[in-house]
Design brief:
By secondary structure, the chain is an alpha/beta fold. The chain has 9 helices and 9 strands.
Length: 269
């Protein structure tokens, strides 16, 4: 008994010491990454893809894909799985998101909405509805500025001020980010990762964001359906009237083609 009385506290001390050591090593590693961020390339890269219209996965560009994967970002899922991930960029509300949410609910599809500070400040009810209905709310930064143009501190402010605002308003902690305008650098990828975020790019987008190019519903629908592929991350803009009008038929036809919609928290490489 005397031996057990001594052994138990010693074991507890060893376990606690081990946990503290691991924590210290992890914090040191993170601090090291932060310290080295300034040495990384800040060459601005605009995300671009070479689309196919035969339902094959597009060419994301080997170097850019390699860089994104190095910092654990995602742009396209498993090529063997007929899975589609639906995402929306929401810099501001143009009056169509309520209809988009209605369509998603009717079709039992969960999506990811990347929002700015302007969006949450002007449309808190819609953001709450996104969260309440099981969608993911992602970070599109406070002011939608090109991150390679900003200092490290400015980038942290752009990300974490929105992060804090969403948490304080809804008790919701964001973990996915889409760089404004799809512009990034190795430095900004590292900063986003260090802040605990997963960068989400895309493997399909089209010129739906232009308010002067609406009224082309058949064009938009054809673009989407022709380019659906295994592991697709679809980027659509919630500011597009056309998208709101064609979303229901697109979802139904994509399902009829044998694809399953999943949200990015169930992403499969």
């Amino acid at each position: 008994m005397k031996k057990l009385i001594w052994i138990i506290p010693v074991l507890l001390l060893i376990i606690v010491a081990g946990i503290m050591l691991c924590k210290s090593d992890r914090e040191t590693a993170i601090d090291s990454i932060y310290t080295n961020v300034g040495t990384l390339s800040n060459k601005k890269i605009g995300w671009g893809i070479k689309r196919n219209d035969n339902h094959e996965q597009p060419d994301l560009g080997s170097k850019n894909k390699e860089l994104l994967e190095q910092y654990e970002g995602i742009a396209m899922g498993n090529k063997e799985e007929k899975t589609v991930y639906l995402t929306f960029d929401e810099g501001y509300e143009a009056g169509y998101t309520e209809k988009i949410l209605d369509v998603l609910k009717e079709n039992n599809v969960k999506a990811t909405f990347f929002i700015t500070a302007h969006y949450v400040n002007t449309q808190p009810e819609l953001v709450k509805r996104m969260i309440d209905e099981g969608h993911i709310v992602g970070n599109h930064t406070v002011n939608h500025k090109s991150m390679p143009d900003l200092s490290e501190e400015q980038i942290k402010d752009e990300i974490m001020k929105l992060h804090t605002s969403i948490y304080e308003k809804f008790g919701y902690e964001m973990k996915y980010i889409r760089p404004p305008m799809g512009e990034y650098s190795e430095r900004t990828l590292a900063i986003m990762k260090n802040l605990g975020y997963t960068t989400v790019m895309w493997s399909f987008a089209y010129d739906d964001w232009d308010e002067n190019k609406q009224g082309r519903e058949e064009y938009g629908k054809q673009k989407i359906l022709d380019n659906v592929h295994n592991g697709a991350i679809l980027l659509l803009h919630g500011t597009s009237k056309d998208n709101a009008n064609i979303l229901d038929s697109c979802i139904k036809e994509i399902k009829n083609m044998g694809y399953e919609f999943k949200n990015i928290d169930k992403f499969s490489y």
